[in-house]
Amino acid sequence: MTADSPDPAHARTPPDPPASAGTPESPGPAATPGSGGAPHPSAAGPAPAATRRRSPGRVAFALLLPGLLALLLTYALPLVWVLRMSLNEAEDGGVIRQTLSVATFTHVLGSSHYWNVIGQTLELGVLVTLCTLVVSYPVALFLARTTSRWRSLLVALAVAPLLISSVARTFGWMAILGTQGVVNKTLDGLGLTDTPLHLANNLTGVVIASTEIYMPFAILAMISGFGRLDPALEHAAAALGAPRRTVFRRIVLPLTLPGVLTAALLVFVLSLSGYVTPRLIGGGRVFVLATEIYDEAITALNWPVAAVLSVLLLAVFGVVISLYLWAQKALEARFTGPGEARS
Amino acid sequence: MADAPARTPSAPAAPAGDTPSPEGSAAHLVLDGLVKTYPGKDGAAVRGVDLAVERGRMLAVLGPSGCGKSTTLRMIAGLVEPTAGRVRVGGRDITDAPVHRRDMGVVFQSYALFPHLDVARNVAFGLEMRKTPKADLKRKVAEALELVRLGHLAGRRIAQLSGGQQQRVALARALVVEPAVLLLDEPLSNLDAQLRAAMRDEICRIQRETGVTTVFVTHDQQEALSMADRVAVMNHGRIEQTGSPEDIYERPARSFVARFVGRANLLPGTAEGQDGDHTLVALDGLGRVPAAGEPVARGGTATVMLRPHRIALSPAAGGTGAVRGTVLSAGYAGETVAYRVRVGDDGPLLDVERPTGTQEPFGPGAEVELTWDHAAPRLVSDEDGDSEGSR
Question: Does B190 share its domain with B305?
Fold first, then answer.
């Protein structure tokens, strides 16, 4: 595409005599090669190539700039601020002593209370992720495989709960799971239980409600991750003698694992940072990092501890995402071979 | 299409193994009145297909897209449940057997290789399902890969293979279990032209070496004619004609077959009587032409098929009695020239195909004489008037 031809015979002589009506020494036409005529092979040759090569980069940068600025202002700077805050120390009455020490870190990491909070956060994350995957997988598998003309509607229905605020949905679950809730009233009315089941104000309730709240995310992530599933593969396996369960175990499950993995990451991360459901259904008995950070920052006015907990939460995210990337790479290697060049 | 053996009372699904059919018929795979209707759709996809394939033979089911050929194949494989009719293999009725108990080797159009398994494990899959002992399994996988000449790629991932290699893996995977019947769904349609010719020979070689009874569906008449022992031409869910490739091409029974397999001039006329085994047909502008084939009663309408390459052209001489025409267009196609010739002044248009290099080509406007040998015109039946095109 380079306009400068090495052969002068094929390049038109540069400044078009009829077009350049100005002074003969005017370099005008040669300096603006984009305006039409081919540039002079020797004089203006390198100029157009250089501008053309640089301009896409400039345009891209100009387009990226607003986003970068927004990220810088709303994400990077606060993050730096949080990191800075975590190195301060708190004194009584919400006073923050500006310093540069790891005293707050030592305090938090030396306290069994905070370790319990971290433990419960991870426990909740793992339980919610497992439950969400188990209940979402069949739905996602059905939606990915069905050829029904209602498919779009069904997908929309599966995702519809997202239209309702998770606060409202959590209140709904409180009405269902509470001691006077639908479940306990029903069981009691049927004479199946003497004392109400403890379904709310504890981890069980938080897991149940969170599972429902994260299902739409998991289903969407799985459907988009099930791209490798081709009905012909299942037919081929069946024709080779595999009964349905074997087809599922040997073909469907391995091929859907990447989608399951993505959904797992999404749900785990969402539930690690979830605040509303643990706070409302936990009834003050479920302590996770998100609620703890809120309490430290707003109630106890201990911003350095809140900042330290935020940094710890970020560290957990980092570990989880590294694990995800590693697992994804391992899964992908099964499809493309162990780093071998393609033939 | 009537070469299915007399219907035998279907034996209840016997356990594995071939029970020879009562008459000891040579037909290995028998389709008996297969019908498939889909709810909510007008008309059936497959409207009563009878077919029989002898052991070790290769049958091509040829037809335009949407003619029901793939549905028929899927009914044999057990992937589609027939609305009516029976499927028998080696005398055993397998119509109600589930896919995984049918012992069919299926090669899908997309190959359907398992992307998460390497070549050897793809091929081993069927053997694992049959609980083949490890040592046997290894040997058989190696033999199957050797058969398709891919022994050196056993450890490759599917994504690392070319289209032709994937096709071979799919064949090896289907054949390694020594299936009762090998089913190929448009086996060559995903390959480029050169590879297609090579794979055509390859599939024929493999089929001969293994001696497996084979059914393949295709919309490509060349594939069907060159590969198969027998060809069944399908249209609108029905078999139009079954026969050897020569039968189908030289002696098409119906106008659809004549048009779909190769090119054909189809000329309507009126039967005027018999002359030996030929029927004399009066054709517009061509006079009285004797045509072989199923006789038509005097006065009945008859359609005569004339293949373009069976018509010879020569420069118009002064003589009378010959069929004269004017060249309207000449299309040079390398090995042949395709002419359109107007017979007489307002007679029918004929397609004529002449090899290049034998005579000076005629240009548009040239006056020519048309001749053909006695055996060239064939009578074809026109029963299926709506056979134009496909749904």
Answer: no
